[in-house]
Backbone:
């Protein structure tokens, strides 16, 4: 099996694909490029607008980290499908200009469960994508299967909307490999857009907004043909058709920043800082986008509104009549009593913002404490208020865990254990690029710090899985 004639392939792709490509400077690292410096300057303005000290430890390198994350997450603007597909088209005996239906050579080919991520064009937050691509070979050619993933990633690494992403992937593949037909099905999920006010009103807010979209060309253009049913069956969506995907999911305004019920809740953040909105607009330009494109006109303001949920403010913090005053708090006697019980508050949801990349992370908090003599259990609403207070800040998970433990400890006698289980957007967009990973952190105070049996008892009370 050899590659098709490269000259013939080049001519076809040159004529078919008009996908503008901006080449990165040869030998120039991302950190030295002027666009990176422009984004860094914009991020510094945003951090100052949040009331942060840009020179404090933890934030010194945040502007560069954010710039690199955005440049990496939108690298698709600098890539061309032609460069990926050429040399990866192979002849296959038995294929001709007719469509094969017998399976094997000439039959339907599907690559399932491609994990991608993209930046939402409405709010600049990443969203996760599970991508499925199918095509029917034709014209005596098949394409290397890994190229289906790489082509999909080119368009995912741009500011995107789910339906346009599906359309662009199917169109590019249809033009590049000239199949009898190509279909793309995307399962997209976008992080919920909560505010501190909404978190206090909703005990179990939704973590994700999900949508299912599809796009088809060639033999897949007719949504009623049997080949769509075959594709859906192979994807385990046996009772779902392309038409039902579109009719049951409204994707016109799928981003939570545009449709969230939290927009109806009065906000105390006031008027957005014009300099912050201007800086967010400059980020779009530095990524090679047109801020005046209709889909992007409101994006800078929505991004700033999201960030302002995590502004650094010194508010008087009173919790259900408790003032965080350690002098009046009950103390632990440091000894285990036979009638002592572990009280648990499990699976308390939280949202926060990573101070290293300005990307959200979210998950659940588990708290255990001993109620001995003179110590009464505290209410769930009080614990939730403490978790949300520290969650809605620029954070790192280790600090968040410690702050929750140190604040709750004096209210319960000092013996406390806190476990935070979280999913980090930066782990998907900047780290291992693998959806589904999570991070756990632990803080222990009082007898939990010295008694392994007490820790084991609390671990046994934790749910086997954490459903964010």
Residues:
């Amino acid at each position: 099996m050899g590659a098709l004639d490269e000259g013939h392939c080049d001519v076809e792709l040159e004529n078919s694909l008009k996908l503008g490509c901006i080449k990165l400077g040869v030998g120039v690292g991302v950190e030295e490029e002027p666009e990176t410096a422009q984004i860094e300057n914009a991020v510094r303005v945003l951090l100052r607008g949040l009331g942060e000290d840009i020179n404090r430890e933890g934030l010194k390198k945040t502007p560069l980290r954010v710039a690199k994350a955005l440049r990496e997450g939108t690298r698709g603007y600098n890539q061309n499908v032609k460069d990926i597909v050429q040399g990866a088209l192979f002849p296959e005996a038995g294929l001709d200009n007719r469509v094969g239906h017998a399976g094997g050579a000439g039959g339907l080919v599907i690559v399932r469960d491609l994990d991608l991520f993209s930046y939402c064009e409405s709010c600049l937050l990443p969203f996760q994508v599970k991508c499925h691509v199918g095509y029917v070979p034709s014209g005596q050619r098949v394409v290397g299967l890994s190229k289906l993933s790489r082509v999909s990633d080119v368009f995912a690494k741009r500011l995107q909307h789910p339906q346009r992403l599906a359309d662009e992937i199917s169109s590019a593949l249809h033009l590049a490999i000239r199949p009898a037909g190509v279909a793309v099905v995307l399962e997209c999920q976008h992080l919920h857009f909560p505010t501190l006010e909404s978190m206090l009103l909703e005990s179990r807010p939704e973590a994700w907004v999900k949508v299912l979209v599809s796009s088809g060309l060639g033999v897949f253009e007719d949504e009623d043909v049997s080949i769509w049913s075959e594709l859906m069956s192979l994807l385990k969506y046996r009772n779902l058709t392309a038409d039902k995907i579109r009719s049951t999911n409204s994707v016109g305004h799928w981003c939570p920043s545009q449709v969230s019920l939290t927009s109806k809740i009065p906000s105390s953040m006031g008027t957005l800082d014009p300099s912050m909105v201007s800086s967010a607009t400059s980020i779009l330009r530095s990524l090679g986008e047109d801020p005046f494109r209709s889909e992007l006109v409101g994006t800078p303001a929505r991004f700033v509104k999201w960030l302002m949920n995590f502004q650094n403010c010194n508010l008087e913090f009173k919790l259900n009549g408790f003032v965080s005053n350690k002098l009046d708090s009950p103390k632990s006697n440091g000894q285990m009593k036979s009638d002592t019980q572990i009280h648990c508050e499990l699976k308390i949801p939280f949202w926060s913002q990573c101070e290293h990349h300005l990307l959200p992370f979210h998950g659940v908090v588990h708290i255990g404490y001993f109620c001995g003599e003179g110590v009464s259990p505290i209410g769930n609403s009080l614990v939730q208020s403490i978790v949300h207070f520290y969650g809605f800040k620029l954070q790192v998970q280790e600090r968040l865990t410690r702050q929750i433990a140190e604040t709750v400890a004096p209210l319960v006698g000092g013996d406390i254990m806190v476990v935070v289980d979280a999913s980090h957007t930066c782990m998907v967009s900047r780290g291992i690029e693998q959806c589904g990973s999570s991070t756990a952190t632990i803080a222990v105070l009082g007898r939990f710090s010295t008694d392994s049996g007490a820790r084991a008892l609390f671990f046994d009370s934790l749910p086997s899985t954490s459903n964010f």
Notes: Residues 34-49 form the longest helix (16 residues). The longest strand covers residues 341-354. The chain has two domains: 6-308, 318-461.
